[in-house]
């Protein structure tokens, strides 16, 4: 299947050399790999023969996943750029980076009493920005030198449907996921601008509600009330594997229950009048 080009890429010279490299016999780093979507993806990659370094701040959970898949574990707080340097120096380089770790704004906090923004502790704001946004930027920054040197690589970031639609349940979460998508599209455009450059594909997955630990009880009740099915982490992991095959450079996979996964289509911005 031909790589899907987003509008920015179409404005620029395009690297047509994206190969359909198999994830087998490649080396991958997975962030947030101790649980949920990261864990399911680490398992799916290992089943295809990829050597996986599972990373997380949950040492016990991450080590169990690493042992289960015959990979290794590295402690990594994705919001710490020094930790990224240390982990890449010790375990890199990588062919695949699945930049997946993420939290909801009120992670580990009691349910809301008031408006989600009025009730927002500044510490919680800084924490989610550090994990959901810095974690993706620092991760891409850390793995890219090795990929550029080897001439190829795949970076997949976990955004969310909340990065494409308004997400009133958690506006700051929506902000971070819109940011991940903007970063992925822009970074992809930067690579597409250099047709003789490395064969590096950058994309995002945008799952809807998935049955993992990030879904707190209050949100779970809201989802049940609307009547939306939770997807399994394995279903989302399957789309990550498909992304590695199809390599939609700059694209975002919409993953929604009962709907064939598809890359999001943006409306072009009209040029200013002459
Ligand atoms: N579950 C959903 O409904 C859903 C929907 C769309 C997007 N997502 C996104 O999927 C990604 C994975 O979340 P999940 O649903 O599997 O939840 P999860 O809670 O099961 O997994 C998240 C993992 O990230 C780890 N983590 C938290 N802070 C970290 C840090 N500072 N550094 C490294 N790791 C850290 C956690 O320990 C955990 O293992 C997140 O980015 C989330 O925003 C989830």
Superfamily at the CATH H level? NAD(P)-binding Rossmann-like Domain
CATH class label: Alpha Beta
User: What is the fold named in CATH at topology level?
Assistant: Rossmann fold
Sketch the major β-sheet. Answer: 8 strands, mixed
Q: How confident overall, as mean pLDDT? A: 90
CATH architecture term: 3-Layer(aba) Sandwich
SS elements, strand count: 8
Radius of gyration, in Å, reads 18 Å
Helix coverage percent of residues?
A: 40-55%
Write up what this structure looks like.
This protein has 274 residues and is α/β, with parallel strands linked by helices. It has one domain (7-13, 21-253): 3-Layer(aba) Sandwich (Rossmann fold). It contains eight helices and eight strands. The chain has helices at residues 7-10, 36-47, 59-69, 81-91, 122-150, 171-192, 217-226, 233-246; strands spanning 27-31, 51-56, 72-75, 96-99, 152-158, 199-207, 252-255, 262-263. An eight-stranded mixed beta sheet has the order 3-2-1-4-5-6-7-8, sandwiched between helices. Strand 1, helix 2 and strand 2 form a beta-alpha-beta unit. Helix 2 (36-47) runs parallel beside helix 3, helix 4 runs parallel beside helix 5 and helix 5 runs parallel beside helix 6 (171-192). It is globular and about 50 Å long. Residues 1-20 have low confidence and may be disordered. The structure holds nicotinamide-adenine-dinucleotide.
């Amino acid at each position: 299947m031909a790589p899907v080009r987003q509008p920015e890429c179409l404005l620029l010279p395009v690297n047509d050399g994206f190969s359909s490299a198999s994830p087998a016999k490649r080396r991958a780093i997975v962030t947030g790999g101790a649980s949920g979507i990261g864990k399911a993806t680490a398992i799916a990659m290992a089943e295809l023969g990829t050597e996986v370094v599972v990373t997380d701040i949950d040492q016990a959970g991450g080590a169990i996943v690493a042992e289960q898949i015959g990979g290794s574990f590295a402690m990594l707080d994705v919001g710490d750029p020094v930790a990224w340097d240390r982990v890449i120096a010790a375990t890199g380089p990588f062919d695949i980076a699945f930049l997946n770790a993420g939290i909801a704004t009120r992670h580990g906090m009691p349910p809301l009493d008031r408006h989600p923004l009025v009730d927002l502790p500044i510490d919680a704001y800084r924490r989610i920005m550090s994990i959901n946004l810095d974690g993706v930027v620092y991760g891409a920054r850390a793995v890219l030198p090795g990929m550029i040197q080897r001439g190829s690589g795949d970076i997949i970031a976990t955004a969310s449907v909340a990065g494409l639609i308004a997400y009133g349940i958690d506006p700051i979460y929506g902000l971070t996921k819109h940011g991940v998508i903007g970063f992925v599209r822009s970074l992809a455009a930067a690579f597409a601008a250099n047709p003789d450059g490395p064969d590096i594909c950058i994309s995002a997955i945008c799952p809807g509600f998935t049955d993992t630990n990030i879904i707190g009880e209050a949100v779970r009740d809201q989802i049940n009330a609307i009547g939306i099915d939770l997807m399994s982490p394995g279903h989302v992991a399957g789309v990550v594997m498909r992304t590695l095959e199809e390599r939609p450079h700059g694209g975002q996979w919409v993953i929604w229950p009962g709907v064939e996964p598809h890359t999001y289509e943006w409306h072009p911005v009209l040029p200013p009048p002459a």
